[in-house]
């Protein structure tokens, strides 16, 4: 098995910088399983229904620095939405997720895009489109998924918590986007205060 950096034995604060990542998408599409796989769980498919919010940490090396990806797991149910407003606001990145084996989860993506737009106005918000369960028969074609990502102007990544495919790739892409030189420059630019004319 490929070696993964996981956090269970990481002391708090053993990283230079941390970022808040939010996962969104319909219930049952495998969000929790992906986060478990990202953080080195032995059996990522043994998930329990997520209630409210849960956070997991993954450490990545980027430009010689250790950075923490704080991965927030959300429940897909409408009634929990009120609780996650603050995570939406502080999110540095969002993973829009759908199940490649569940067409309706792909068709409902715009609900999640709207939801994030209503709650996070950061110009520098990093966004990825991520399909899950790529070990199963696809109900959404590769070109449909890529077209949707192009429409949104964001990268598309394929994962499977079952096989581990795309899991490390997703984390390193996240780290690079969040912590890369370009991201840092954008961050600085967006923190410049603009005085409104009166
Ligand atoms: N075949 C397959 N099943 C998965 C995968 N990821 C999750 N599942 C199963 O899909 C169901 C829902 O997963 P879960 O992570 O709880 O979904 P969530 O509600 O989006 O957090 C569970 O029964 C998982 O075992 C995967 O990569 N492949
Ligand atoms: Mg869950």
Automatic annotation (TrEMBL):
Pfam families (alphabetical): Ras
**What CDD domains does UniProt report for this protein, alphabetically?**
Rab
Q: Please give a single GO biological process term from the UniProt record.
A: vesicle-mediated transport
The answer, when asked if Nucleotide-binding is one of the entry's keywords, is yes
Q: Which SMART domains match?
A: RAB, RAS, RHO
Extract the InterPro entries matched here.
P-loop_NTPase, Rab, Small_GTP-bd, Small_GTPase
- Gene Ontology molecular function, alphabetical: GTP binding; GTPase activity
Q: Which Gene3D superfamilies match?
A: P-loop containing nucleotide triphosphate hydrolases
- What domain of life is recorded for the organism? Eukaryota
Q: Which UniProt keywords apply?
A: GTP-binding, Nucleotide-binding
Concerning SUPFAM superfamilies, the annotation shows: P-loop containing nucleoside triphosphate hydrolases
Q: What is this protein called?
A: Uncharacterized protein
Q: Please name the taxonomic classification of the source.
A: Eukaryota, Choanoflagellata, Craspedida, Salpingoecidae, Monosiga
């Amino acid at each position: 098995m490929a070696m993964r950096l996981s956090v269970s034995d990481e002391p708090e604060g053993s990283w230079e910088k941390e970022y808040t990542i939010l996962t969104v998408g319909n219930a049952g599409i495998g969000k929790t399983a992906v986060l478990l796989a990202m953080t080195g769980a032995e059996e990522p498919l043994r998930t329990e229904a997520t209630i409210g919010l849960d956070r997991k940490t993954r450490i990545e090396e980027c430009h010689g620095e250790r950075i923490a990806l704080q991965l927030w797991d959300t429940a897909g149910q409408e009634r929990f939405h009120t609780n996650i407003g603050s995570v939406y606001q502080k999110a540095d990145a969002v993973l829009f997720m759908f199940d490649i084996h569940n067409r309706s989860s792909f068709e409902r993506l715009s609900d999640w895009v709207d939801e994030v737009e209503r709650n996070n106005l950061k110009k520098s918000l990093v966004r990825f489109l991520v399909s899950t369960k790529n070990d199963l028969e696809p109900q959404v074609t590769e070109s449909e998924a890529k077209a949707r990502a192009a429409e949104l102007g964001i990268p598309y990544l394929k994962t499977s918590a079952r096989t581990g495919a795309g899991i490390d790739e997703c984390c390193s892409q996240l780290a690079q986007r969040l912590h890369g030189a370009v991201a840092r420059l954008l961050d600085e630019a967006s923190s410049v205060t603009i005085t409104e004319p009166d």
